[in-house]
Design brief:
- Catalyzes the condensation of (S)-aspartate-beta-semialdehyde [(S)-ASA] and pyruvate to 4-hydroxy-tetrahydrodipicolinate (HTPA).
- This is 4-hydroxy-tetrahydrodipicolinate synthase.
- Pathway: Amino-acid biosynthesis; L-lysine biosynthesis via DAP pathway; (S)-tetrahydrodipicolinate from L-aspartate: step 3/4.
- This protein is an alpha/beta fold.
- Helix content is 46%, strand content 12%.
- The protein has a single domain, classed as TIM Barrel.
- The chain has an eight-stranded parallel beta barrel, surrounded by seven helices.
- The N terminus is likely disordered.
């Protein structure tokens, strides 16, 4: 797909069809450990599609319940439009419907977000994940209209994504409640890392089909035990099997087992963020022999002063 082809595709038909209802049902069933997968790169910064294929196969084999393609962990800010679409396409093709794929399609331009979301639909993603508009800092009404416009334009299930520490804006629970009633908006990834916010969201009168996902590995287990439906995870990049088991136990309401399984991963939840994500997780995957630590400016490889910290967390989790 060329840039011209992509840019010329504005909105798709907004008919609430039987086909869409099927896609809605698929999205509403995505629960458990959903990896926010890295985009592997060669040392010179080119996307390493062979390594990406291997990672997808590994995640499927290890029980990962879903894959987010080209989120923040996938370096969405530095991929070109063509690369962004091609990485989504490649993950969809490699997954081969073995696990659902969610395309990261958020932007701080509503028009751009609509175009990326339409592309995710075109390449076969099961849903789209849309981060709050960053840097321009819209008010709550602006965020409501932004998300509503995307939902009205593109026939694909859409998941809101709130991460105030990165975007500079906080999608408040009252706005989430309004958006949860917009057709095609099917869930929220909440990455504030605050259990008080988790409780606020759980107290809302949300549609039964609206899914809540943690976006903070350190509090994901507690969030799921409190009623969330899964974790969109960075940690799952390096320990997909263990993260799947933690989420499965928490979804079953087995707090003791979930805590036992999660305890060895606590260092990863913390230390994979010792420098800006995805710097540490890419270095970790290289240490595991899974992918090169290639990364694009303005991010740089993990500082040597952090190597021992991340390596110790990997060892404690049994990843190396």
């Amino acid at each position: 797909m060329t840039t011209l082809d992509f840019r010329s595709r504005r909105s798709v038909a907004s008919v609430y069809s039987a086909a869409f209802r099927t896609r809605f049902a698929v999205a509403s069933m995505i629960q458990g450990s959903i990896v926010a997968i890295v985009t592997p790169m060669h040392p010179d910064g080119r996307v390493d599609f062979d390594a990406l294929d291997r990672l997808v196969d590994w995640h499927v084999a290890e029980g990962t319940d879903g894959i987010v393609a080209v989120g923040t962990t996938g370096e969405s800010p530095t991929l070109s439009v063509e690369e962004h679409v091609e990485v989504m396409r490649r993950i969809v093709q490699r997954a081969g419907k073995r696990v659902p794929v969610i395309g990261g399609t958020g932007a701080n331009s509503t028009t751009e977000a609509i175009e990326l979301t339409a592309a995710a639909r075109e390449v076969g993603c099961d849903a789209a994940l849309l981060v709050t508009p960053y840097y321009n800092k819209p008010p709550q009404e602006g965020m409501y209209r932004h998300y509503k416009a995307i939902a009205e334009a593109v026939d694909i299930p859409q998941i809101l994504y709130n991460v105030p520490g990165r975007t500079g804006v906080d999608l408040l629970p009252a706005t989430v409640a309004r958006l949860a009633r917009v057709p095609r908006i099917v869930g929220l990834k909440e990455a504030k890392g605050d259990m008080a916010r988790v409780r606020e969201l759980r107290a809302l009168d949300l549609p039964k089909t609206f899914a809540l996902y943690s976006g903070d590995d350190a509090t994901a287990r507690e969030s799921i035990l409190a009623g969330f439906h899964g974790d969109i995870s960075v940690t799952a990049n390096v320990v997909p099997g263990p993260m799947h088991r933690v989420c499965k136990a928490a979804l079953a309401g087995d707090a003791a087992k979930a805590a036992e399984l999660d305890a060895p991963l606590a260092g990863l939840h913390r230390d994979l963020f010792c420098e800006a994500n995805p710097i540490p997780v890419k270095w970790a995957l290289e240490q595991m022999g899974r992918a090169s630590a290639g990364i694009r400016l303005p991010l740089v490889p993990l500082s040597p002063t952090s190597h021992d910290t991340v390596r110790a967390a990997l060892r404690a989790a049994g990843a190396i």
